[in-house]
Design a protein that fits this description.
The protein has a domain of 63 residues. The chain is built from four helices and four strands; from the N terminus they run ββαββααα. A two-stranded antiparallel ribbon has the order 1-2. Strands 3-4 form a two-stranded antiparallel sheet. The N terminus is likely disordered.
Length: 194
Amino acid sequence: MVMTTLNGILIRQDPATTQSARPVTKAEAKAAATAAADAQRAADKAFGNQIRDQVRAQIAGAAAQGAPVAPTPPESRQFTIRGPNGEQTIIGMPPASDIIPPQAVDISVAFFMTIAIIIIGLPLARAFARRMDRKGASPQISTDVSAQLAQLNQSVDAIALEVERITEGQRFTTRLLTEQRDAARQALPSASDR
């Protein structure tokens, strides 16, 4: 029996059934594709386990011989740059942890925190300033209310004038009564004169 795959579809060729070539249905093709994918995953897993076991065996063998196991050096990245004239330049990059100094990280964190504070704090500061302005400003009075207040002010002034006139009249009356009483005392004979 021969099995071949074309474009992810498993085609099964059996010498006994090659005479009666019947078409493969979609369900059969899908089942065959799933089986092929499962087989590939199982093979990959077995290959990975085999490599892992070999590495562990080599590490155990090196440790058994007493050889110190050196840590693997960090991968150095190399970039090749080709110039316009075909000249090549190779640049070695340090590991990613050594590229950015800690001070640059602190500065970038401080920058983004400052931006966040400005974005949040600016509208809050503007709202607080508007609230303070509203408290300090006199409230707006409508024209109807201001007309009524003007009329009330005129009425109070008129009442004040009338009260002042009444007060003057009472003083005048009090003075006349006092003068008449004094004149009457002088006009009446005293008890010793009688």
